[in-house]
Design goal:
The complex is a heterodimer of chains A (418) and B (289). Chain A has 418 residues and is α+β, with helices and mostly antiparallel strands. Chain A is built from ten helices and ten strands. Chain A has helices at residues 6-24, 30-38, 77-95, 183-196, 241-247, 274-278, 282-289, 326-330, 375-385, 414-417, and strands at 64-72, 126-131, 174-180, 201-209, 211-212, 263-272, 341-342, 345-351, 358-368, 392-402. By secondary structure, chain B is an all-alpha fold. Chain B has one domain: A middle domain of Talin 1 (Up-down Bundle), CATH 1.20.1420.20. In chain B, α11 packs antiparallel against α12. Classes of the chains: A alpha+beta (418), B mainly alpha (289).
């Protein structure tokens, strides 16, 4: 599979992503080295599917996401396992840019691969799978005999102040995060996985994100979110192994054993009150976030990566970074050193038909070793006091255990089913 | 935005942002030349102190009214007079909704008085108007509400005292007007504010009227600098208030559940059409002083 006419129009991306691509394909030897030296077209770059950890977490954040949560329709454990095996095979093919089956086979049968990603190349596609609390009985019956294996860290998220969660875009038994440089490659992956699973699983909710709002390697430039601010300046970097091991990956001594080398995903659909934000003065926007709008520097600083000085006082004796500023409340220093890996994407789903206002915002996804000491305390603090709460509302939520990666021949989730 | 970024003086920067905001009316770059004397009689331009004292009087009039009406409401709740309490609920909230951005300055007081159930964190206590609203409309009862009513009464009395200490300047007043309209577009327009009583339109009108009063107290600055903008804002307020007219009933409004999706959409668009030009005002009043 080679990238076709798409190459030229995407070439402008290549320079900025070169270093990240080199990291990503390093495991493939000569191919990776060649790519790095030529500033590869990301459309042609393969992210390794097999590994100790699942792809799509430490991976340099791709530009697009198609996320989907699924309900499991079967109550037969062997059918669920068979689905995970089928999904694993299909995911391994798609990650290398191959179709999941012959798109030009028997003329009397529907094509096996749906075809819309032919010629688009692998586009750094990663597929990351997770298991929701409801797969482990949750509030319902123990359909698959997994209740005893539910990780303590997969504790239901508490309600947070100001949440307006819609159950039709929350939760799920399974999730798949498809990230790629090309939105159609990401969409194709979810579509074909849903098709393979039809009858066994059904999509519960899905979210397309059109632009990354985090950088997850030191080499990536910090992107802007829909508030117009640089986002994720001080994110955890996937290539920072000590920080990843301490904060993101489930460690060798952590329970349950089947989750070791895995992680936990919290996804939140955060709607922005875009019209109200656009009426706010630049000074107040900057006080709300705690950074300068254009430079991205923390208030009191000059450059984006200047140290965030939470103790600094202005001439008026007040904190330079206000007490309710978003970056103060989200900072590891305010949260006992908690660090989570953010991998969010901007989204828009047209307009809210009730108000005529834009339905857009941040599809926030974060990974951590334990949400009880990661997302939950940080979000509790933000929900209580963040000045940004005037302009955002959390409307969807999902929590998933992301099992470890696999070697060739294995299948996603095999440590759970044993 | 490059030119906005390079503006050195805070004052000049504010004006430039307004100019970059795409207003139909060009806004002049900050000038050290006083506008007074060149565009009209000096008497037509108020001082910042005039604007502040006008609006401060409006705030205090409303907190006084809030205390009086809340007393009547909470007395009815404590006495177990269900129908009377229901009738007094929306009118009691009205003065609060006119000046809400000022109340929000005082930390925990606004949530204590006006939190909706989903604003309360896990383990927190749900108090204030909406707690009583829930009991009155979903349980059709005042049972257990006496302590909540007493606390509400104490909280509004505390607010009445605290607003006398609040720092105000014309830009803050102008931004408060925008904040009131944002309140409408974020929670009133969706029917979330008074989800049990469906008296949202009372709050809706109070937010708009409060914003209009804030606007009136700083309007003269804008008339002098940008008369077209002032006229746009005036007609925007008139359009929103006219948009509410069909839903008036007696001394108040019909239930929010009567509104059809097209009604809600039209009101939402009127609010946005007013709030955007209003958001240009703060930068102008800073320059004009």
């Amino acid at each position: 599979m080679t990238a076709g006419p798409a190459i030229s129009r995407r070439r402008l991306l290549a320079g900025g992503l070169a270093a990240g691509a080199g990291f990503a394909v390093g495991g493939l030897g000569g191919f990776g080295v060649a790519r790095e030296s030529q500033a590869a077209d990301p459309q042609t770059v393969v992210e390794p599917f097999y590994g100790v950890h699942q792809a799509g977490i430490a991976t340099a954040a791709q530009e697009r996401i198609q996320f989907a949560a699924f309900d499991v329709l079967t109550s037969k454990r062997d059918e669920l396992q068979a689905l995970l095996r089928s999904w694993t095979s299909a995911a391994a093919l798609m990650a290398t840019g191959k179709p999941v089956g012959d798109p030009a086979g028997d003329p009397n049968a529907p094509p096996i691969d749906t075809g819309e990603a032919l010629e688009l190349g692998p586009a750094r596609l990663t597929l990351t799978f997770g298991f929701g609390p409801s797969l482990f009985a949750g509030p319902g019956p123990d359909r698959f005999g997994l209740a005893a294996l539910r990780p303590a860290a997969l504790a239901d998220l508490p309600p947070f102040a100001h949440d307006e969660l819609d159950p039709t875009i929350s939760d799920g038994d399974l999730c798949v995060q498809a990230c790629a440089e090309d939105p159609q490659v990401a969409f194709h992956a979810i579509r074909d996985l849903a098709r393979i699973g039809r009858g066994t699983v059904a999509i519960r909710w899905a979210q397309l994100g059109f632009g990354r709002t985090s950088s997850t390697t030191a080499a990536q430039a910090t992107p802007r979110n829909l508030l117009g601010f640089l986002d994720g300046t001080n994110n955890v970097h996937g290539d920072d192994q000590p920080t990843m091991d301490a904060n993101i990956w489930v460690a060798a001594g952590d329970d349950p054993p089947w989750m070791r080398a895995g992680t936990y995903l919290v996804a939140r659909r955060i709607r922005m009150r875009i019209e109200a934000w656009d009426r706010d003065s630049r000074g107040d926007q900057e006080a709300t976030i705690g950074r300068h709008k254009v430079s991205g520097a923390p208030l009191g600083g000059v450059n984006e990566r200047d140290t965030v000085d939470l103790a600094a006082l202005g001439p008026d004796g007040k904190p330079v970074i206000p007490m309710a500023a978003h970056i103060r409340l989200a900072a590891p220093a305010t949260n006992g050193g908690i660090r989570i890996l953010r991998r969010g994407y901007s989204f828009t789903d047209g307009i809210d038909s009730l108000t005529g206002q834009l339905d857009g915002g941040l599809f926030f996804a974060c990974f951590q070793r334990d949400p009880r000491t990661g997302f939950v305390p940080v979000q509790t603090r933000l929900a209580a006091s963040d000045a940004l709460n005037e302009y955002i509302v959390h409307v969807g939520s999902g929590l998933f255990a992301v099992p470890p990666g696999i070697a060739e021949g294995g299948y996603i989730g095999q440590t759970l089913f044993g | 935005m490059t030119s906005c970024r390079t503006a050195g003086l805070a004052l000049a920067a504010l004006v430039l942002v307004a100019a970059c905001g795409g207003s139909a009316t060009p806004i002049p770059i900050a000038s050290s030349v006083p506008v007074v004397g060149s565009t009209g009689p000096e008497a037509s331009i108020p001082t910042a102190a005039d604007a502040v004292s006008t609006y401060r009087a409006y705030i205090e009039m409303n907190t006084d009214l809030l205390v009086t009406r809340t007393k009547a409401f909470t007395d009815a709740v404590i006495a177990g007079k269900l129908a009377e309490a229901k009738a007094l609920y929306a009118p009691a909230r009205e003065p609060y909704e006119r000046i809400e951005p000022v109340a929000e300055v005082f930390g925990d007081l606004d949530p204590a008085i006006d939190a909706r159930i989903n604003d309360v964190p896990a383990g927190g206590t749900f108090t204030g108007f909406h707690r009583i609203e829930e009991a009155l409309w979903t349980k059709n009862s005042t049972a257990g509400m006496a302590p909540i009513a007493k606390k509400l009464q104490a909280d509004v009395i505390q607010l009445q005292a605290l607003v006398k200490t609040v720092d105000l300047d014309p830009a803050t007043i102008a931004n408060g007007a925008v904040g009131l309209l944002n309140e409408v577009s974020s929670s009133k327009i969706t029917g979330e504010e008074d989800r049990y009583s469906h008296t949202d339109l009372w709050d809706f009108e109070a937010n708009v009227v409060g914003a209009q009063e804030a606007w009136n107290s700083v309007k003269a600055f804008v008339v002098a600098r940008s008369p077209d903008l002032a006229a746009t804002i005036d007609s925007g307020f008139a359009a929103v208030l006219a948009g509410l007219d069909p839903f008036k009933k007696g001394d108040g409004f019909v239930s929010y559940t009567v509104l059809k999706p097209a009604d809600t959409l039209a009101l939402s668009q009127l609010i946005d059409a007013l709030a955007d030009p209003l958001s240009q005002v703060a930068a102008i009043v800073v320059t004009a002083q």
